[in-house]
Design goal:
The mean pLDDT is 78. The longest helix is centred in the C-terminal third of the chain and has 17 residues. This protein is of the alpha/beta class. The chain has a 3-stranded parallel sheet with strand order 1-3-2, with helices on both faces. The protein contains 4 helices and 3 strands; from the N terminus they run αβαβαβα. 11% of the residues are buried.
């Protein structure tokens, strides 16, 4: 019993660690915005030759991309029409696609 009590007093304090993981929000397509994943962007551009696409290449963890998100959303709501559409492409989920477009 004494050995145990001495060992407890000499030990360092216990610090619990809490690990929290956060899932990125599910992509929701709206009439104003199209989300491109994998090779869907080149396919859409080939299909819609008469449409001008304004595409934002983004990552979910970048503070700069998160700062642009509400501005890009407002632009898409205001200026989307039959011949001009807005889209977003996650660079981590669409490996190789961003390099095709600079």
């Amino acid at each position: 019993k004494q050995w145990y009590q001495r060992r407890v007093r000499e030990s360092r304090p216990f610090s619990p660690v809490l690990l929290v993981t956060v899932r990125p929000p599910a992509l929701e397509e709206s009439a104003e915005m199209k989300y491109f994943v994998d090779a869907s962007l080149p396919e859409q551009l080939k299909f819609d030759k008469n449409t001008i696409w304004v595409v934002e290449f983004y990552t979910t963890f970048s503070p700069h991309c998160n700062a642009v998100k509400p501005i890009f959303g407002a632009l898409s709501r205001e200026f989307t029409c039959e011949y001009m559409k807005f889209g977003k492409c996650d660079v981590l989920k669409s490996q190789g696609i961003p390099e095709l477009y600079g």
